[in-house]
Amino acid sequence: MPEAGPSSAPVPEPLTGTSPLVVVIGSVNIDHVVVADAFPSPGETLLGRTAYVTLGGKGANQAAAAASGGARTAMIARVGEDAEADRARARLVAGGVDVGAVTTVPGAETGTAWITTAAGDNTIVVVAGANHRWPSEGDPTEGLGAQAAIVLAQLEIPLDIVRRAADACRGRFLLNAAPAAELPDDLIARCDVLIVNEHEQAVVSGKLETKGTEGAPGAATARKAHDALRARGAKAVVTTLGEAGALVTDADGLSTALPAVPATVVDTTGAGDAFAGVLAARLAAGDSLLDAARLGIAAGALAVQVSGAPQQHADLATLRALTLTTPPAEED
């Protein structure tokens, strides 16, 4: 893959403000969504019900969620030399995200996803575009990693960029290992918090079974996976378990099962991103891992009640109110 040429944007100045900074490094896409009653067969043409264009990419989704969670948030990403880049930046800014480090790659196209939803399911074709066009050397955070209380990354950008971002982080490094991928031990060991769902947990930990045999679905398996991941160096591990809530294992090795917030599920797209972004925001603000995860669960519960990744996130007061409706946590 060709390397990115010289950036067309200057190195960002240090961000102003005194509140703790969350830096999200990851993907920015523009999603083109078609809603239909059925999926077309190869060669078939069907009438769709509606279509819309929206901001996507796990990085952008998580940055927007972090800003909604009360954090001063900056996005580090690569976009193309096209109108889609302007649209992406505008939507991030509208969500309260600093885009000074969202850099244009000359000659590249902004990442896009082409999504068809039908019959409660979806098909997705992603064109990575500029998301995979990063310099081959240097600090990909462009100095922001040294300013941040939290650096949050995912795996929709090259793994080497994630590793270098972790090295540049002087605060806490959070990794949402999505999409699922096997990870080197040195990256796992750099994670202050590793965030996964059940499928990602199975791939990252090497534990192929995804359902537990006791307690909440997946909880027993998640505990074993957390032990394995902490043995490889991860300080804390969080597994989201859908309608079963989440399992949190802290840096002391204490595992706590957090219940879900009741929700009517319309579409699970973006729920994990809402969780990760709010978790990062609240950790930056000084919340405990358990309290941050509770608010992340509330954000995920709201996300599943809308179609597609949410473009507007609830404020912190709303999230806190939702956490009051859940049962108590269960410690190991």
What does this entry show, briefly?
The protein contains ten helices and 14 strands. The protein has 332 residues and is α/β, with parallel strands linked by helices.
Describe this structure in words.
The chain has helices at 58-68, 83-94, 144-147, 159-168, 185-190, 198-205, 219-231, 271-284, 289-303, 316-323; strands spanning 21-25, 29-35, 50-56, 72-79, 97-104, 111-118, 121-127, 150-153, 172-176, 193-197, 237-240, 246-249, 255-258, 330-331. It has 332 residues and is an alpha/beta fold. The strands form 2 sheets. A 10-stranded mixed β-sheet has the order 5-4-1-8-9-10-11-12-13-14, with helices on both faces. Helix 8 (271-284) runs antiparallel to helix 9. The chain is globular. The chain starts with 20 loop residues before the first strand and ends with a strand.
Features:
single chain; about 325 residues; alpha/beta; 10-stranded mixed sheet; 4-stranded mixed sheet; 14 strands; about 25% strand; globular; disordered N terminus
